[in-house]
Sequence to fold (238 residues):
Amino acid sequence: MTEPRRRPVALTIATVIAFAILVALGFWQVQRLAWKEALLARIAALQTVPAQPLASVLATGGDMDFVRVQATCPGLGAAPFLELYGLRDGQAGSRLISACATGVAAMPTILVDRGFVADTVSARPPVDPADRTPVAVTGVLRRPDKPSPFAAPDDIARGRWYARNTVAMAESLKAPAPAAPVFLFAETETNPGFAALTPAPIPAEIANRHLEYALTWFGLAAALVGVYAAVLFSRRKS
Fold:
């Protein structure tokens, strides 16, 4: 009498673990899809929403992400700035970050992303702290992204940054604390005479491939089950 073949325990455990991971990744991408669709809808609505006074938005609090505002920043066109590494249309460069007084006691400072300068341009806007000419800015408030674990460390001494850190950046610019927890991404020019500085508040195209990724993970999970079943079937036949 032929002894029945035992089920491959190690293979079964490995398959169950891998299957659980693949399915979990698939559902995570489904959650990301819902988040991305809501974000894209909010950005689409932003295009026609009138700008609100910055001081009113900061005083009200709440969710300030992707809110269009207008502000007047004394001396912004000649303000000291930090350089934040950035990419635009596949080109490396720097985004210039300066401080703007808000007039709000609870958040007296907001950091303004004045725009992008490509690495091919060595010139920078002039800096004159004594120049307090008011600059009207219309832009979008955005929460800073979490820094990537692969990002280079900030070179504070040289004013070269790789992550948006409102507290550390405001301190480096010697701006009154506390700074608002959001950045003001300028849509309007802060230096009309310096054409190389391009306001860049929102990417022109925001990819949304989460459904594709979810189907990929679920497909891999289904393929894994098929392979496992084929292995069991072949063992029974042999």
Summary: The first helix runs from residue 9 to 46. The mean pLDDT is 87.
